[in-house]
């Protein structure tokens, strides 16, 4: 949902989009199937999936044999994947250098989120500083910018922005426990945040539920 809106905002601002997904050993592949579908639907120049085996280190309900909770608790939840967004942005940074791109877009959000430290503005600002001292593009080129247009939006804001941009949210998958066909469980934290966003926006929920 968030990634789809991010792509659409970038496209509206005149950017050509090279979409990146990371197969990191998550519980299901349906979100990766949805990512390819959404990238085509929103006019990305290309969509690339890079494989990184985070199951080999585990530490998360999404990459180890730990149950996905139906209710969020206090603190950082067990669905947090250690260093996931750092790894994803690092791969995106490398690809951006190869493409000659100075702009990296990501759909992180610090309002209606699950408490992940790598979805906060401080992380995005720190990674941008890193990108500009760790790369040839940063040191000798025009520099790298990290765009996080959803950072201050609620899930309702994101739903409304998606409607304005004409996004078919039924093509997206957010659920931590989606089945092989991409149908959502309706109970995990990701499902509850998503459903609440549509309710708060006064929009019908187009999510396909199991």
TrEMBL record:
Q: Which UniProt keywords apply?
A: ATP-binding, Ligase, Metal-binding, Nucleotide-binding, Queuosine biosynthesis, Zinc
EC number from the UniProt entry: 6.3.4.20
Q: How is the cofactor bound?
A: Binds 1 zinc ion per subunit.
Q: What class of enzyme is it?
A: ligase
Q: At which positions is Zn(2+) bound?
A: 175, 185, 188, 191
| Pfam families named among the record's database cross-references | QueC
What Gene3D superfamilies would the database entry show?
Answer: HUPs
Q: Could you confirm whether the keyword Nucleotide-binding appears in this record?
A: yes
Q: Which CDD domains match?
A: QueC-like (cd01995)
What is its pathway?
Purine metabolism; 7-cyano-7-deazaguanine biosynthesis
Q: What is this enzyme's catalytic activity, as reactions?
A: 7-carboxy-7-carbaguanine + NH4(+) + 2 ATP = 7-cyano-7-carbaguanine + 2 AMP + 2 diphosphate + 2 H(+)
Q: What NCBIfam families does UniProt report for this protein, alphabetically?
A: 7-cyano-7-deazaguanine synthase QueC (TIGR00364)
Describe the task this protein carries out: Catalyzes the ATP-dependent conversion of 7-carboxy-7-deazaguanine (CDG) to 7-cyano-7-deazaguanine (preQ(0)).
User: Which HAMAP family did the record assign?
Assistant: QueC (MF_01633)
Q: What is this protein called?
A: 7-cyano-7-deazaguanine synthase
Organism equals: Dyella acidisoli
The top of its lineage is:
Bacteria, Pseudomonadati, Pseudomonadota, Gammaproteobacteria, Lysobacterales
Q: Gene name on record? A: queC
């Amino acid at each position: 949902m968030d990634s789809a809106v991010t792509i659409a905002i970038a496209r509206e601002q005149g950017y050509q989009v090279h979409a990146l997904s990371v197969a990191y050993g998550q519980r299901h592949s349906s979100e990766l199937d949805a990512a390819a579908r959404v990238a085509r639907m929103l006019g990305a120049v290309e969509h690339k999936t890079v494989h990184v085996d985070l199951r080999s280190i585990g530490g998360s309900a999404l990459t180890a044999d730990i149950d996905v909770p139906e209710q969020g608790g206090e603190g950082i939840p067990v669905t947090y994947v250690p260093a996931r967004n750092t790894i994803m942005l690092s791969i995106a940074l490398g690809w951006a250098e190869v493409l000659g791109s100075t702009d990296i877009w990501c759909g992180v959000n610090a309002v209606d989120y699950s408490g992940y430290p790598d979805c906060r503005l401080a992380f995005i600002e720190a990674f941008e500083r890193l990108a500009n001292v760790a790369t040839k593009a940063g040191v000798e080129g025009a520099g790298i910018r990290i765009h996080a247009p959803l950072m201050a939006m609620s899930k309702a804001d994101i739903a409304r922005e998606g409607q304005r941009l004409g996004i078919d949210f039924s093509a997206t998958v957010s659920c931590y426990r989606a089945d092989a066909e991409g149908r959502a469980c309706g109970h995990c934290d990701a499902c509850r945040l998503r459903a609440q966003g549509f309710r708060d926006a006064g929009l019908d929920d187009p999510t396909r539920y199991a």
